[in-house]
Amino acid sequence: MKVLMFGWEFPPHITGGLGTACFGLTKGLARHEVEILFVVPKAYGDESEEAVRLLNASEVTIDIDKEETRDYWERVQYMEIGSNIIPYVGPEQFELITEEQRKVTETFRSPVFSQKYEFSGKYGTNLMEEVSRYALIGSALATRHDFDIIHAHDWLTYPAGVAAKETTGKPLVVHMHATEFDRTGENVNTEVYAIERRGMEAADMVITVSNLTKRIVVERYGIDPKKVITVHNAVEPVDKSGLELPEKQVKEKVVTFLGRITFQKGPEYFVEAAHKILQRDKNVRFVMAGTGDLLNKMVQRVAQLRIGHKFHFTGFLKGDDVDRLFAMTDVFVMPSISEPFGIVPLEAMRSNVPVVISKQSGVAEVLRHALKVDFWDVDGMADAIYGLCHYNALAETFIKEGKEEVDNLKWSNAAKHVKAVYEKVLKGLETK
User: Are 331 and 388 contacting, i.e. CB atoms less than 8 angstroms apart?
Assistant: First the structure.
């Protein structure tokens, strides 16, 4: 079985969980003899191709004079994007997102229609221009490669997946990692919502990363529940034996938040819980690792609460730096307001760190050995963190049982379920 798969990022060039999930899933599918042609907007040359053949959309040319190119463009809605809906933003973008949006016309003079187009592959202010060009590339690539099924990850690639389906008639599976409601709450960008809805309506099957996300897809987008299936994410086992991990340099307990510092991730609840804990025990330090549009607000709140001497902001971390942080961490906290899944708690548990997670997260559906609280319950969150910091028996139990639990959440198992979705779709076409 061969799959044409569209993604927006691929390790080591990632800014969020999307690229990590794509990498783990493709490796798992390779173990089940599924061949993947993985398309990214921009390839840097150092990506791992052990499980995929990587296609660089920046190297694909299109002929703007071809009738099918113009015909397709008439079916593509080309929009301007607002900074409030950028989903996984790299740190270099945050200085740019408040600038005035540059409007791009719908004419063939747009750079979208240049014969070659250099994607940034990031999430900047010209994101929708890149999404639109990516859709054209999807249509072009679909005619140049042989495959059985199309798989598109998240809204950024849905137009490309739909284009490939319209061009070839091959079936489409879309993967919903995070909805517009997760990213913005009720402040939904209607244009992105429309892309998500159209992608799911055009798809033969929709994969959601949790039952929480499935409910949103069915109730808020009106998608037929019969064609929506949940496949929980997993965590990739890694050999860190050669990694030199630092020794903890402080006597206090270390409590860590690691993620995008945005509305969705609930960083303000972490800060408020930290304040409550420090009123009971001064021997705790707090780390907020990440970047996002709420970073300055969090720094200001920490200063206002006068806990800056116990609070550390590290900026964006990835790769070995994340493992080094976990090596110094006593408790990991994910207070997300709406988390479709949440891979970072699994990575923490794999590193022998007990976790506190919000009940409003997909990963809460699969974890038993994690303390779960409502994101808004700052007192409950503080109590859970305090307990893991001060009751060794509790922490040791969660460390031991949690590590075993996570070791059984393998991408190979998730990939087996995804392959079953492919087979169901292909079988359904055969019976029509």
Answer: yes
For domain 253-407, the CATH architecture is: 3-Layer(aba) Sandwich (3.40)
What kind and span of H or E run contains 278? helix 267-280
To the question of pTM greater than 0.85 for the whole model, the response is no
> What is the CA angle 175-178-180, rounded to 5?
120
d(C-alpha 288, C-alpha 262), whole Å: 12
Is cis: bond before 11, omega within 30 of 0? no
- Same topology between domain 2-234+411-431 and domain 253-407: yes
Which among 154, 94, 100 is positioned nearest to 124, based on CA atoms? 94
Cβ-in-10-Å burial (0-12, 13-18, 19+) of 235 comes to buried
Amino acid at 387: G
d(CA 281, CA 268): 20
Instruction: Give the C-alpha separation, 328 to 285, whole Å.
Output: 11
Q: So what's the pLDDT on residue 318?
A: 81
Long-range contacts of the stretch 215-222 (C-beta < 8 A, 24+): 216/179, 216/181, 216/182, 217/176, 217/179, 220/179, 220/181, 221/179, 221/193, 221/196, 221/197, 222/197
Q: What is the pLDDT of residue 432?
A: 59
Ramachandran quadrant class, 182 (left: phi over 0; alpha: psi -120 to 50; beta: rest): alpha
Residue ranges of domains in the chain:
2-234+411-431, 253-407
Q: How many CB atoms lie within 10 A of CB 410?
A: 17
For the chain (length 432 residues), average pLDDT per consecutive 10?
89 76 90 90 75 76 56 42 36 37 38 60 69 82 91 93 92 95 84 93 97 96 97 81 72 94 94 97 95 94 96 90 92 94 92 96 94 97 97 95 91 95 89 62
Q: What CATH fold (topology level) applies to the domain 2-234+411-431?
A: Rossmann fold (3.40.50)
Q: What is the 3-state secondary structure (H, E, C) of 2-55?
A: EEEEECCCECCECCCHHHHHHHHHHHHHHHCCCEEEEEECCCCCCCCCCCCEEE
Q: Residue 371: in which H helix or E strand, if any?
A: strand 371-373
pLDDT at position 221: 97
Give the integer Cα–Cα distance in Å for 157 and 81. Answer: 15
Amino acid at 207: I
What pLDDT was estimated at residue 110? 53
Query: What tokens appear for 188 in the block?
Result: 């939904």
